[in-house]
Amino acid sequence: MIVFVIVAAIMLYNYFQSRTSVLTTQAQISIVNPQLAGNVYSITVENIGTTPITLTSINIYPQDSQTPIVSQPLNTSLNPGQSTSIVGTSSTQFITGNKYIVVIEGQTGNGQTVAAESIAISQ
């Protein structure tokens, strides 16, 4: 009986250890500080997950539009906890006071796609 309890305890311990490692591996990015002014944008992106991510693209859409006014490919690697600023210009002026939707996409080393979306108000 004691042997059975010890074996069961070891099996439960191993099961929960494997579940914990699966649950703690997350790929997640966050748009921290989107700024739009004139035709210039500066977007700060942070890796808030637990695995490295390579940012692959940024798109900026006017509110209520499905056509981006900015579409830029990226190749920026972020380790967990790191952030970076993406700065660029648009061929179209951002209209002061208007809302724009910023979408950042990325990929992990194993091919998982991640994305973040934020609303920015042009200044």
Any key phrases for this structure?
123 residues; alpha+beta; four-stranded antiparallel beta sheet; three-stranded antiparallel beta sheet; 1 helix; 7 strands; 50% strand
Please, could you describe this protein's structure?
- The protein is an alpha+beta fold and 123 residues long.
- Helix content is 19%, strand content 50%.
- It is built from 1 helix and 7 strands.
- The strands form 2 sheets. The protein has a 4-stranded antiparallel beta sheet, with no helix packed on it. A 3-stranded antiparallel beta sheet has the order 1-2-5, with no helix packed on it.
- A hairpin with a 2-residue loop joins β1 (29-37) and β2.
- The longest helix has 23 residues, at 2-24.
Count of runs of 4 or more consecutive helical residues: 1
The main β sheet shows up as:
4 strands, antiparallel
* Number of DSSP strand runs: 7
**Mean pLDDT reading:** 87
Strand content: over 45%
**Shape verdict:** elongated
Helix coverage percent of residues? Answer: 10-25%
- Going across the major beta sheet, what is the strand order? 4-3-6-7
**Measured on Cα atoms, how large is the radius of gyration?**
21 Å
Low-confidence stretches: none
Question: Could you tell me how far the N terminus lies from the C terminus, measured between alpha carbons in angstroms?
Answer: 72 Å
SS-based structural class? Answer: alpha+beta
**H/E topology pattern:** HEEEEEEE
